[in-house]
Amino acid sequence: RRKGEGEAVDIGSIADDKGLDGQPDVKDFMTIDWTFYNEKDRERRMSEMAGSRRSAIIKAMFSVYDAMQSWLALSAIGFISGALAAMIGTGSDWAMDLKFGMCWGRGFWITRTMCCKDSADIMSCPNWQTWAQILGVSDPANEQIISYLIYILIAVAQGGYAAWLCATFAPYAVASGIGEIKVILSGFVIKKFLGGWTLLIKCVGLVLSVGSGLSIGKEGPAIHVCCCVSNVVSRMFSKYAFNEAKKRELLSAASAAGIGVAFGAPIGGVLFSLEEVSLYFPPKTMWRALYCATFAAMTLQRLNPQPSGKLVMFEVTYHHQWKLFELAPFAFVGAVGGLIGAFIHKMNLRVARFRKTSQLKKWPVSEVMACAFITSVIDYTVVYLRGSSMVLLSALFSECKNSNQDTFEELCNHENGKEILFFLLLSAVIKTLLTIVTFGNPCPGGVFVPALVIGGLMGRAVGFALQLLENEMGDVGFFSQCRSSSSCITPGVYAIVGASAVLGGITRMTVCLVVIMFEVTGGYEYVLPVMVAVMMSKWVADAFGKASIYNDLIHLKGYPHLDNKREYTFSERASDVMTCRDLFVLSTKGNSVDSIESLLSSTTYQGFPVVTSHTEMLVVGFISRDSLVRVMKKCRQHPNVLGNTLCLFSSEVDTNDLFVDLSPYLDKSPIQITEKTPLDRVIEMFRALGIRYLLV
Fold first, then answer.
1. Given pLDDT bands bounded at 50, 70 and 90, which one contains residue 14?
2. Spatial contact of 105 and 133, defined as CB atoms under 8 Å apart
3. Residues in CB range of 284: below 8 A, 6 or more apart
4. What whole-number distance in Å separates Cα of residue 209 and Cα of residue 43?
5. 207-211, 222-226, 392-396: the lowest-pLDDT one
């Protein structure tokens, strides 16, 4: 340390001191200081590059290594995320198939698709045995009863075990986690939410909860899984391990990777991270997010043995030119999707509020088991909802003449058109009600796939009704444009449009949703209809509230979050919202260990302005409470520091006494505003600058 006439005590010389460099402790439920960590990263790079003794080669090698840390971390995150997504996808498919039977010929751990990959018809596969066949039941009536009971039993067991794992080992592994990810990326700290145990339980719980048939999906939680991977990987790189701001750059890229592995949509993942979850998204993060999402999607494509090898999840094999008059039905589907999305949003929020305030929160496992029981009892009786949601979506998005989805072939049977319309709408209503009570319950699961299924059922019903009407009326009236084409109304397109609309109504996603649906289906001809539906959906849903379901759940849970999409209009000024008029400051001189400890014990403020004197009150900096507490603790451990030892905020003072220099822990450039500053401008400063405090 520098010395004046007196001597500064070097309290940092104590052997067990590891944190007296001005860096604040990262505590649970605190907000990070973006400017502080950005400055620390700049100092780290400058200190590594400084030194006249270091050769140019060594400095160049350090520059290369510093840049490579980012790409190595992103590659590791992408690979691990893709591998975990492949395991979760295969595991959930196996858990879903287990409710119907098992692969008796090749091994019980094999999914039905892999077990019957050599069979011409998956429904008559000799290697696959139903539970009735395994138990030796041959009577058709008893066979149905046994299959029904085992279906319910396994579903309840899987759902209950997933909830028990979360309640016992990782409470943060429940639900989708997207809301908390948004809070964390805005600078808030939630410890253990991105930890290793949460990652493990989230993966296992997703396999069980999705396999149980609950009205949830694994695509939303994939974002949480990838962010957990990012947090674990960041500990291995010095550039990110101790810098919370840099760590959040990796989390933004991991969020994009989550959408990349969930839907095979890396570009949509980047836009999702930019539009929905990230508060701080510099240009370099966009490129890195695209790299991470692409790496993860390619890893999933390579490791997952079940798909056909294509990255497109629901590839459409038809490329018909839609007609101009269809813009009106597309807009209608979008408006209805917005209404459904807003209804699910509001009702699910009421269920979440009831879950939080009632005795139901004390019985998480019982709640999930009850949901699994009700869902399995209902879904088994409805052929569209009995199996996997992904298989149902594939059938809804497909064209009639190319549909070979066994029981879903009747989606194209015009002879039973009224019955098909009834069951499509009935399935949509059932799925809506189940999603309202299931999403957010104490087990892992998201709302993306249920919303797509609800919208797909509704859109398919509208498209099928138009197709029946066109067959009944012929190519007359507004159907006259169909005369020049072999195919006029394609119900699969309406299913895609409806799926986009409902998901947009719940989440309020716009641009990223259009791109995700384009990447999911590969139907570039249908981008405009999807855009029309998404815009109509958002306009209609915004009439009931502009916040997405994730933002409302954030507020319900009490997390601090400044929505970067929300526009604030206040007539108040900064002085109007200050809760305390008593001013507690520290002067650069005249402080002692006892006086500072007395100030800390008598107040609960998280920091104190430092002024030249109590008469001049010119601000020279700001010091946090955490820094003062740690310094005072070390002072008490130092043999030469007493209670009356001076504590000064300068190393050059006119004193012959021993003193403690607090200047290294001082923020010498705090942002200041006047008391007449408009409140909306204050909020914009917090959002734009990422600061923790303002001095008024």
1. very low
2. no
3. none
4. 47
5. 392-396
Taking the CA atoms of 363, 364, 367 and 369 in sequence, report the sign of the dihedral they define.
negative
According to DSSP, the β-strands at 591-592 and 128-130 are unpaired
Single-letter code of the amino acid located at 250: L
Residue 432: count other Cβ atoms within 10 Å of its Cβ: 21
Give the Cα separation of 396 and 149 in Å (integer): 28
> How many whole angstroms separate alpha carbon 182 and alpha carbon 273?
9
Report whether 347 contacts 436 (CB < 8 A). yes
Non-local (6+) Cβ contacts of 57 within 8 A are none
The DSSP bridge pattern shows strands 128-130 and 101-103 to be antiparallel
Give CA–CA dist 642/622, Å, rounded.
Answer: 24
* Structure tokens belonging to residue 625: 């409470």
Q: Are 455 and 499 in contact (CB under 8 A)?
A: yes
Q: Which residue has 């001013």 as its token pair?
A: 583
* 388 torsion bin: left (phi>0), alpha (psi -120 to 50), beta (else): beta
Please name the residue that has the structure tokens 């009944």.
472
Beta carbons within 8 Å of 204's beta carbon, 6+ residues apart? 162, 165
Give CA angle at 175 (172, 178), nearest 5°: 85
Check if the beta carbon of residue 216 is closer than 8 Å to that of residue 226: no
DSSP 624: E
Please, which pLDDT band fits residue 336 given cuts at 50, 70 and 90?
Answer: very high
For residues 306 and 93, the answer to whether their CB atoms sit within 8 Å is yes
User: What confidence score (pLDDT) does residue 448 get?
Assistant: 95
Among 253, 222, 213, 265, CA closest to 87: 222
Minimal CA–CA distance to 340: which of 198, 200, 435, 439? 435
**H/E element holding 108?**
none
> CA 287: distance to chain centroid?
20
State how far the Cα of 551 lies from the Cα of 345, in Å rounded to an integer.
11
Residue 412 clears pLDDT 90, i.e. is over it: no
- Give the mean pLDDT of 194-222: 94
Selected residue with higher pLDDT from 597 and 689: 597
Which distant-in-sequence residues (6+ apart) come within 8 Å of 634 by Cβ?
Answer: 11, 12, 14, 17, 20
Q: Distance (Å, rounded) from C-alpha 672 to C-alpha 175?
A: 40
Residue 510: how many CB atoms within 10 A of its CB? 17
What's the confidence (pLDDT) of residue 16?
39
Whole-angstrom distance, CA of residue 132 vs CA of residue 141: 11
* Cα gap 216→211, rounded to integer Å: 10
- As a whole number of Å, the end-to-end CA separation of the chain is 33
Among 54-63, 458-467, 576-585, 678-687, the least confident range: 54-63
Give CA–CA dist 145/167, Å, rounded. Answer: 33
Distance CA 127, CA 434 (A): 34
Integer CA distances (angstroms), 180 to 183, 230, 326, 444, 663, in order? 5, 15, 40, 14, 36
Cα–Cα distance between 605 and 79 in angstroms, integer?
44
Single-letter code of the amino acid located at 595: S
Helices (H), 474-592: 491-507, 511-521, 527-542, 549-557
Q: Tokens 């149905």 belong to which residue?
A: 144
Question: Could you give the CA distance from residue 314 to residue 394 in angstroms, rounded to a whole number?
Answer: 6
Length of the chain counted residue by residue: 696
